[in-house]
User: Fold this.
Amino acid sequence: MLKLKHVFKDYNNNMVLKDINLNLPSKGLISIVGVSGSGKSTLLNLVGGLDKVTKGNIYFNNKNITNLNTKELNWYHNKCVGFVFQSYNLIDYLSINDNLSLINNNFDYILKKLDIYNLKDKKVSLLSGGEKQRVAIARAILKNPKILLCDEPTGALDTSSSIKTMELLKELSNRMLVIVVTHNMDLANTYSDYIIEIKDGKINSNIKVSDDNNKLIIGKPKKTKIYKIASYHLKHKRKRNLLISISFAIGLIALGLVLSINIGFKNSITKEEKNSLAKYPITISKYSTYLEDNSIKQEENQIYAYDINHINIIDKTIVNNLEDINNNLSYKIFKYNINNR
Assistant:
């Protein structure tokens, strides 16, 4: 079901994974072991579509997931892969019950199996690290994925809780592929079907351990509506959302006031200018002086000669033209011959 062919991954010219080739079954519990920095979590992120390979291909059911577009990748995350992160990624202000209800309502059996059933009404923010880890495992299981990826699922758990968690993952591996990154070789040897050791970015060994699986039945996951998640946020963070709404409203009102004042000020200035300029007469003098040093002007391929001192001819014609000017015009042009030019 899951194939990795000649997969390479580097960060800042540092090759983390080197020519990884794997052919994993559709079900079973696979443990990936190795020292810190060997590339275990990187391999898990590549399989889960959280990171891109530098070179090579990863196939899920014969589909190359290294070339998925955003829509296809979202489908792969939502329908095919479940994650158990080291950082939990839970909604802290919701209870265990509310966190899991966003995925599936049929979770009592899993909570009992993980020994947190009596905590289901408790807020996540009040849980210990080990309890949060078990909630994160329960949430990933409730998605009913085809591949369950677990990054150190027992890292924050005590011995008893670690055993219960691995027993549950072992049961799940009867109906899905479970890939576990772990440092605990005892748990890996006890519960794994295969153990893959990574050393210096390469597969050092691939050992078949056992074929023993138990069966676990989980109800079908329900479709999570985005409006339901939003309603949870609005309900449980009322004060913060109210303050944000008030701040946003004040900002909009202030912006509206500033724009109104600006527009009103501009209109007032424009009106004042019109009223002031309308009171000033336009004066045409009989005598004018051309102030430039030369008396030749070239315009549109024609040369005009100017008189240094020019006398305007104020006759009946120009007076009539001035009287005919429309007050709404910005300008109006009249042509006169001066000295036959």
